[in-house]
Amino acid sequence: GVVFPYSPRLGRYNLNFHEAQQACLDQDSVIASFDQLYDAWRSGLDWCNAGWLSDGSVQYPITKPREPCGGKNTVPGVRNYGFWDKDKSRYDVFCFTSNFNGRFYYLIHPTKLTYDEAVQACLKDGAQIAKVGQIFAAWKLLGYDRCDAGWLADGSVRYPISRPRKRCSPNEAAVRFVGFPDKKHKLYGVYCFRAYN
Fold first, then answer.
1. Rounded to whole angstroms, how far apart are CA atoms 131 and 134?
2. Taking a C-beta distance cutoff of 8 angstroms, is the pair 53, 41 a contact?
3. Which residue numbers delimit the Link domain (predicted)?
C-alpha cells in the first residue's frame, strides 16, 4: 500500500482526530498506523507537517533533517509529538490505501475544465472523478505517470510522476500538488476512476 499526507482545502492543521479519520475515508483510504508510517519513512517519505495516526498520536517522517523540521543537526526518523486531545487539537493526517479495484485514468478531453465540468465529464465517461487515495495508489502500486494537472474529487489539482523529468517533477517521483484552485477556472483536466464490479 501507500501512505500519503493529507490536509483539506482549509489548509494545514485544520483536522481534529475524528475529522482526520473521516478525511481519509472520504479519499478512499484509512488513517495510517505508526507501522505503516514507519515503513513509508524507511521507503523515503519526508514530510514536515505533523499528522494524526490511528493510535491517536501525532507524528511526522523526516529523511532529510533541516531547520524547520526539528533542526538540521538531528537524526532522520519519525518525529513524535505524542498524544493530543482528539476533539480540540488540530493537525493534518497520514492516510493509507492499498485498495485498488478499478481503473484510474486521465480523461482525454478537447478543452480544459472547471471543477463541475470535470465531475460531469467523468460521469459521462461511465466513471467518477478520482479521489486523492486513488491517485496515490495508481502512482505507487501501478507506476502511473502523467504530466497533466487534473482535478480530483476534493477540489484539489494534482498529477502523478513516476519517472522524474524536467518540467514535471525534476528531482523525485511524487504525486505533485498544484493546490485548491477556484473551482470556476477552466485550467485543468481531470482524473477519473471506474470501479470494477
1. 5
2. no
3. 2-97, 102-194
The enclosing H or E element of 20 equals helix 17-26
Question: Per the structure block, which three cell numbers stand in for 128?
Answer: 467518477
Residue 52, SS3 per DSSP: strand
Q: How far apart are CA 149 and CA 147, in angstroms?
A: 7
How far is 159 from 44, CA to CA, in rounded Å?
19
Domain at 100-193, CATH from 3.40.50.720, 3.40.630.10, 3.10.100.10, 3.40.640.10? 3.10.100.10
Going from N- to C-terminal start, the domains of the chain cover 1-94, 100-193
Distance of CA 148 to the CA centre of its chain: 16
Q: Within its chain, how far is the Cα of 63 from the centroid? A: 18
Answer whether CATH 3.30.110.70 is correct for domain 1-94. no
User: From first to last of its 197 residues, what are the pLDDT tens digits of the chain?
Assistant: 999 999 999 989 999 999 999 999 999 999 999 999 999 999 999 999 999 999 999 999 999 999 988 888 999 999 999 999 999 999 999 999 997 789 999 999 999 999 999 999 999 999 999 999 999 999 999 999 999 999 999 999 999 999 999 999 999 999 999 999 999 999 999 999 999 87
